[in-house]
Amino acid sequence: MAAPGQRLHILDRKIAVPGSSYAYPTTRDTRVGIVSASSNAYAAAGGRTTEVSLSAFSFLLSEMVQHVQARVTSIDALERRLEEAGYAVGLRVLELQQFRDKSVGKRKTRLLQALQWVSADMWRALFGKTADSLERSTENADEYMIHELQPITNVFVSVPPDLGQLNCAAYIAGIIAGALDGACFPATVTAHTIELAGQEANITAAGGPRCKTVFLVKFSEEVMRREAQLA
């Protein structure tokens, strides 16, 4: 467990909070789409895109992480609690997207359809962009990977050395799991920190992130049996 006073730190533009080891960003011009409409049809019909400032999101996330950190004794437990928090969000995202976009309301029957919706439509609705890439594991047929160079949960986070490989994107992993489960594609989703190498490292060498996050999606046996029947 982290020693008293060892907290995750929020970086970049800061404002100190009296009596706290945290400093919160004061950026006002950067905004994050939260469960916004993803279809042009919805926007054309007068739908409103709901946005939350990145500063506000970072503040709320940091408070949640501190709250959970004080109640667990290991990094694994901390990540599991973040995943649980994100799971409920994923269920609501799916529900709201189905309400706003009628094409989403059509039940996905194939595994790849569901994953493409998560990495494209849902990602765009939440973060204003699609995921960097979606790949299938070459070793296990039930595993897929969603790559994200810089998850929004990690933009202002600096993890102390004593917390090792903690990845706050576990919250996003929970969102993915909740959305897939709600769509009848139950899966275990975990967030992993991967060091950049080769071409990716060269692209981000000028002050960019040195690591990326890979969300490993492992589908249940039930999903794989159904997929085999539909193939």
From TrEMBL:
Keywords, in A-Z order: Endoplasmic reticulum, ER-Golgi transport, Golgi apparatus, Transport
CDD domains: TRAPPC5_Trs31 (cd14943)
GO annotations of cellular component type: endoplasmic reticulum; TRAPPI protein complex; TRAPPII protein complex; TRAPPIII protein complex
UniProt keyword Transport, yes or no: yes
Entries under InterPro entries matching the protein: NO_sig/Golgi_transp_ligand-bd, TRAPP-I_su5, TRAPP_component
Gene3D superfamilies per record: Trafficking protein particle complex subunit 3 (3.30.1380.20)
Places the protein is found: Endoplasmic reticulum; Golgi apparatus
GO biological process, one term: endoplasmic reticulum to Golgi vesicle-mediated transport
Signal peptide annotation: none
Domain of life: Eukaryota
Family to which the UniProt record says this protein belongs: Belongs to the TRAPP small subunits family. BET3 subfamily.
PANTHER family xref list: 41-2 PROTEIN ANTIGEN-RELATED, TRAFFICKING PROTEIN PARTICLE COMPLEX SUBUNIT 5
Protein name as it appears in the record: Transport protein particle component
Organism: Tribonema minus
